[in-house]
Amino acid sequence: MISAADLLGAMLGTLFLTLGLAATAASAFRTARRDRTLLWFGVFTALYGARLIGRSHAVHEVLPFAMSTWQIERDVITYVILVPAALLTASVLDTGWRRAVDALWIADAVAAAGCIAWDIVVGRTGAAMGANRVVVIANLLVALVSVGLDTRRRRWTRDGWIVLAGAFVFGAVAALETIRGGMFGWIDAEPFAMLVLVLCLGYVVLKHVFHSERRIAVVGQELATARQIQQSILPDRPPSVPGLSIATHYDAMAEVAGDIFDFVVTPSGQLGVLVADVSGHGVPAALIASMVKIALAVQENEVHDPGVVLTRMNRALCGRFELAYVTAMFAVIDPVARTLTYAVAGHPSPLLLRAGGRLESLDHRGVVLGFLPDASYSSSVVHDLSGGDRFVFYTDGITEAARADGEFFGDRQFQRLLAASESESADRFVSTLVDAARRWSGADFADDVTVVVVDVGGENSEARGQPC
Questions:
Q1: Could you write out the DSSP letters of every residue in 142-187?
Q2: Alpha-carbon Rg for the chain in angstroms
Q3: Environment class of residue 384 by beta-carbon count within 10 Å: exposed (0-12), middle (13-18) or buried (19+)?
Q4: Number of separate helices (H) and strands (E) present in the chain
Q5: 243 and which of 49, 335, 379, 450 could share a cystine (Cβ 3.0–4.6 Å)?
Q6: CA distance 49 to 31
């Protein structure tokens, strides 16, 4: 007849085995891979649970292996379990004492191999159990001394003391059971001591999980606020400029983006267009993008020369950030004089689709912003604009949209769509372009995407574009 104590042992063994396997699996998904505490805890707990299960007569009836098989399983685990226990102890200690305990697991591995070999030579499982008891006591003494010395060296947190208390209870009971088994009568107290240790660790882990969840929620709220702030510094709609039709598309790959675009309308009716792309992604890139916006804003009354604008922006940005740079394009369109004046700082060249269907790439490169403080930029001028001419300013997120095989959407397809868009409005072309790039990648963009399209109208035409 199966006793209640036997059933309880099987239940505790199943619990420990499940927790150990879960902890071992969870350790593979941790960001801090160098911290192996969770891994060794999982291995130790899983082995302990497997050994408890191997002792249960209830399990023997469900899994009818030979009793000698169960005995070998229990004895082998007893020999081997000291190795993850020593590694677990070493992982939670300070560096100075960790090195001493690191040598312990190697000794435990050698001892385990020796005990297993001795059992094989003698032909009787458990023959080396007496020697193993000496190894267990040595491990407990080394762990106790190491933790004591480590406690003198650093101040443990409250959570650390809780875990140490659970470990002390388990270690004390395990030592007593090893030295003199059956001290607590028919009750095997060691699994309950193990349960105390697991509960202490579980409390600490759950506390940290909930704390992390709260931090993630706060970060999420802060990112949402940052997105609102960034959206507020972007134009909510294109400006209305007689003689020009404007359409835009802005797509951030994360909550906040490193792309930025802006417009400046002069008193004489000229339109200034800025498109910039900060290297990197996320909050750092968004902060630098805000700096780019400010660097342009202070020059709103002197935007007639794009080369000078980029030169001054570069001087304002140099030394303000490290390990980042900014590509930018600034252009001024004069619908009365029918000219485009532009300057480029390491940015994709603007494209011009003439009313007759001829496509021109306005190549005029300069070094990226924020890299060389003495860099200067010059302006280029496109004359003789006519009604129906179309300018496209963009960031490389659109051309570098990639398929699963890694092939980019690319300049060729971009320009093919542009060449075929002569009869489409600016709004319609932007939608067609972005939809085509999305279909190409089959998913969301892997980079921020900005597209600004400006159509030159007739002598008396009005702006008719709206943001996409």
A1: HHHHHHHHHHHHSPPPHHHHHHHHHHHHHHHHHHHHHHSTTTTTTS
A2: 35
A3: exposed
A4: 13, 10
A5: 335
A6: 27
Q: Determine contact, residues 410/440, Cβ cutoff 8 Å.
A: no
Question: CA-to-CA distance for 96 and 149, rounded, in angstroms?
Answer: 10
∠ Cα 144 188 12 (to 5°): 90
Query: What's the distance, Cα to Cα, between the start and end of the chain in Å?
Result: 76
Q: Per-domain residue ranges for the chain?
A: 4-217, 235-456
Q: Is residue 129 packed enough to be buried (19+ CB in 10 Å), middle (13-18) or exposed (0-12)?
A: middle
Round to whole Å and give the CA distance between 97 and 154. Answer: 11
Work out the pLDDT band at 298, boundaries 50, 70, 90.
confident
d(CA 397, CA 381): 26
Q: By the 8 A CB rule, do 394 and 348 touch?
A: yes
Say if residue 198 is exposed, middle or buried (CB neighbours under 10 Å; 0-12, 13-18, 19+). buried
Question: CB-hemisphere CA count at 13 Å for 30?
Answer: 16
Selection from 430, 455, 425, 451 nearest residue 335 by Cα: 455
Compute the average pLDDT of residues 70-74: 91
CA distances from 379 to 227, 273, 274, 313, 342 (A): 33, 14, 14, 14, 5
Separation of alpha carbons 298 and 277, rounded Å:
19
Highest mean predicted confidence (pLDDT) among 144-148, 210-214, 267-271, 403-407: 267-271
Q: What SS3 class is residue 251?
A: strand
Using a cut of 0.90, tell me whether the model's pTM lies above it. Answer: no
User: Roughly what angle, to the nearest 10 degrees, separates helices 67-80 and 129-153?
Assistant: 30
Dist. CA 396–CA 402, nearest whole Å: 12
DSSP single-letter state for residue 367: P
Per-residue model confidence as pLDDT tens digits over 332-357: 999 999 999 999 999 999 999 998 88
Say if residues 238 and 466 touch (Cβ distance below 8 Å). Answer: yes
Compute CA 156 distance to the chain's CA centroid, rounded to the nearest angstrom: 30
Q: Tokens 């910039």 appear where? A: 276
Distance between CA atoms of 163 and 167, rounded to whole angstroms? 6
- Strands (E) in 306-425, as ranges, are 326-334, 339-345, 351-353, 359-361, 380-382, 390-394
